[in-house]
Fold this sequence. Notes:
- The protein is an alpha+beta fold.
- Helix content is 34%, strand content 23%.
- The protein has helices spanning 9-18, 84-100, 111-117, 136-144, 203-217, 220-233, 244-253, 258-267, and strands at 23-25, 28-29, 34-35, 49-54, 57-62, 71-73, 82-83, 105-108, 121-122, 126-129, 150-155, 160-165, 172-178, 192-195, 198-201.
- The strands form 6 sheets. It has a 5-stranded mixed β-sheet.
- Residues 1-78 have low confidence and may be disordered.
Amino acid sequence: MPGMNHDHPADLLGRARSATTRLLFLGYCPIGHGTTSECHRPTNRSSALLSIHFESYRVHECHVCSVMPTFLTHPFPTVTMHQTSRLLEAAAALSQLLRAREVPHAFHGNVLTAILSDAPQADEIFCIVEGGTSHPFRRVRLACAGSTDFSTVATPWGSRLHVTYHRPIPPIDIEILPAGEEGPRRLDATTVMMIGRVPFLTISEFIRAKLKAWALRGIENDAADIVFAISRYWDRVDINRIPEQEMNTFVRRYKGAASGWIELKRKYGMS
């Protein structure tokens, strides 16, 4: 990629440590491999990546070309575990702002499995938002405008919007996802369930979204969430919302999901 920074990793690490702003280093392979996280060469993908963690930052190096990436200013650290109760507090506060503007929304991520399993911590929370007459991101920014508890930051290179809840320490980052791109296109009584006063995707939509994410990225945390949900709550799943071929593929790899999937198919007369 033109303008690629070829500094040595140690130089970049030293520069980042002394920086006054927090930096996230994003890697791009200059010879067509996409981002370093998407690099498929060499064949052994695990050997194609090197992740160097330091403080709150992460650097990726593509071993195909051994090029370190350029850096972009970004206010968010790497994944942080939060108390589940604080994530719920953040979700409830954001939900109140969105409800005040009548913006359909639902929360998603492993915060849901943490709630259902009474786990004390989780590290993933998203808010899926419908667009309507304007883009979901604009609706969220308008809802958060004037709030002292929330700030919003867009990342143009990734077409993402993050909302940060500042009351707890450390603050909580919630990524906003447009409905239809992630989760169902419509957020209503058929796709959303309430936990207290906080809307979450139903178990069916949660599994569907996680299955899609797993098929794209193959992340073990997504797989664990699917296994938990289908094995514990198969009787609350609408099988019409679960892609059969993808789930069959998943079950062949993760045997822990087999019993729930079998019971669900038997319930619908598909066994």
